[in-house]
Amino acid sequence: MIKSTSKLGIDSIQAYMRNTNVFFEGIEASFLDRACKKLLAILGRLARMRCRPVYSERIVENPLLFQHVPHHPQKILDFGCAGSSLPIQLCALGHSVTGLDFRPYPLTHKNFQFVQADIITWKPVLETFDLAVSISAIEHVGLGAYGDPHRDDGDRIAVNKLRESLKKGGTMLLTVPAGKPCLKRGMRIYDLDAIRRLIEIGRAHV
Predict the structure, then answer these.
(1) 89 burial type by CB count under 10 A (0-12 exposed, 13-18 middle, 19+ buried)
(2) Which of 13, 22, 97, 160 could link 87 by a cystine bridge, Cβ 3.0 to 4.6 Å?
(3) By C-alpha distance, which of 127, 66, 129 is closest to 93?
(4) Distance in angstroms (rounded) separating the CA atoms of residues 94 and 89
(5) For 148-194, how does the pLDDT look when each residue is reduced to its tens digit (9 = 90+)?
């Protein structure tokens, strides 16, 4: 609990910078007290540098995905989950999730299992999952940006592998960057025609 003996509020970094009477109840002169005050000092320096938070496309993609995930428990395959908390969020909602990525995944959950593999050579167990999701991952497959082997048609192979892993009537939810078709910063950019060709492999609809 943070307390202040001054009249200034402590609801902003600027207030922390001005308020010299901040202390932490029950932990004065402790390591945690010193660590917390050090953190406040760092935040103050960042505020003076006018640092701005960086937002990614996840603030749009993840809410869209959750709108289409059924409320009742599903068996879900999440491809490209490294660096994302999405599979753990899905597990917390009661789903059984398998994560697949070329890179390791550090988080665990009782409803989660992880497979570290290259999707190009990965052999899916056919008709296993109710739902396959891939958030901003398909566009990177086969381009070597994350140390994975090069394969020009890696994105198409990946989509086909996800399709094969689905039960009959299963659903695939994908997001990819849209714009003028090109290769940029280790990823593919897709226009509508390219997206249609990609999704057609998965026998889905745009």
Answers:
(1) middle
(2) 97
(3) 66
(4) 9
(5) 899 999 999 999 999 999 999 999 999 999 999 999 889 999 999 99
Helices 154-165/192-201 angle, 10° precision: 40
Phi, psi of 126 (to 5 degrees): -65, 140
Instruction: Kindly state the DSSP code that residue 108 receives in the 8-state scheme.
Output: -
Q: Are 105 and 47 in contact (CB under 8 A)?
A: no
CA angle 175, 181, 182 (to 5 degrees): 100
Q: Fill in the amino acid letter for 130.
A: D
155 Cβ contact list (under 8 Å, min separation 6) = 138, 139, 141, 142, 176, 188, 198
User: Of how many residues is the chain composed?
Assistant: 206
Tell me phi and psi for residue 40, to 5 degrees. -60, -40
Q: Cα–Cα distance between 162 and 171 in angstroms, integer?
A: 10
